[in-house]
Each structure stands twice: as C-alpha cells, then as structure tokens.
Design goal:
With 201 residues, this protein is an alpha/beta fold. The protein contains 7 helices and 7 strands; from the N terminus they run αααβαβαββαβαββ.
Length: 201
C-alpha cells in the first residue's frame, strides 16, 4: 500500500533525510528525545519495534541503550541508510498494515509523523496490525504533528479524534498524552501529540 510519504518523496529520500538529520545534530539539537521518552517508561532489555523506522535514528539509539530492537519501513531508500549505519539490527521492508513478527514486542514506537503519512484509508487497518504485534499489556507510543507547522509540506493532518477512534478499535487504551517528546503538557490547541497506549485486548 503506497504511503503519502512515498507519494511526496518518490521513495528516494533516504540520503537527503539522513543528511538533514546530521546537519540538525551539528546544531546541538537533541536528536534522541523519542528514545529518552521510551527509556523513561520501559526498562531495557525490552523488545521494541520501531514502526516506520526510516533511517533508524530512534531504533539505533534504543539499541545503544540496551533494548532488543527491530525496525520496519516501506521506504527502501531509508532502510538502506539504516542497514549501513547499524547492520546488527533487523531492518525489514514492509507495509505497517501487513507486518507481522511471530514473537511480538514489549513496546512499539511510531514516531516521525508516520500516522499522518499513512495511505488514505489505512489508519484503522494499520492500528489493528500494530496492536496485534504488541504483547499482552504491551505499550504503544505514537507521536505526530496535528497541523501544517508540524507536518511535511503536502501532508494533510490526521485528526486526533480519528486516531483515538482507531486506537480504541485496535484494543489499545490511551494512558498518557503530551504535546512533545520532552513531556510538555497537552492542550487541545497543541500542534503535536505524543500518545502512550496499553494493549487491553
């Protein structure tokens, strides 16, 4: 299933994206907020799926912190960077709506605007499949922009109400919500949401 990301980038943006992240890191920006957020809630060596892993920035940091990490993405150009940077991690090319691992995961992290970049009509199916990869009482963490200022150009926002409905249908219960990866308080006018969910069925 073609994602909005592929439509926007042509599936050939891996090197450009990696270069942009490297340039940002040189400015002193915190590049590991997502991984730190996970580490504050889940103890290593939990098994974690980096869903929509891209070039592997989050998953690689989690592996450095002692987690057992797997990554999945549909963009081969992004995965090529991840495999070159961290060949010891299992990076899989797959649609999130179809990806299945027989052992499941203690936690799933889905960052980097993966949710609004899903293909049209894919939200419910993707959420159900991701929830199925979470072990009983497992954690699923999602972070994505809610307005144009926090999304790639040309990407329409996914209403938070739609995401919440898909989360509930998938058997996930929201337990925390913030406006950023550093734990800023969420409010209805926030342009970004980080949601922590637990699998309840």
């Amino acid at each position: 299933m073609t994602s909005r990301w592929q439509e926007l980038t042509g599936g050939a943006s891996g090197e450009r994206y990696a270069a942009a992240m490297a340039a940002r890191a040189k400015t002193g920006a915190d590049m590991h907020g997502e991984a730190s957020f996970v580490a504050d809630r889940i103890a290593a060596p939990a098994r974690i799926l980096d869903a929509g892993c891209g070039t592997g920035r989050v998953g690689i940091r989690l592996a450095e912190l002692g987690y057992d990490v797997g990554g999945v993405d549909l963009d081969e150009s992004m995965l090529a960077v991840a495999r070159r940077t961290a060949p010891h991690i299992d990076w899989v090319r797959s649609d999130l709506a179809e990806y299945a691992d027989p052992d499941g995961f203690d936690a799933i992290i889905c960052a980097g605007n993966v949710i609004p970049l899903l293909a049209d009509g894919a939200l419910d199916t993707t959420m159900r499949q991701l929830a199925s990869q979470s072990r009983p009482n497992g954690t699923a963490i999602f972070g994505f922009g809610l307005d144009a200022a926090h999304l790639p150009a040309g990407c329409d926002p996914t209403p938070l109400a739609d995401f919440d409905a898909a989360t509930e249908l998938a058997g996930l219960q929201t337990v925390e919500r913030y406006a950023s990866w550093d734990g800023a308080a969420y409010s209805p006018d926030a342009g970004y949401a980080v949601t922590v969910s637990k699998r309840i069925r």
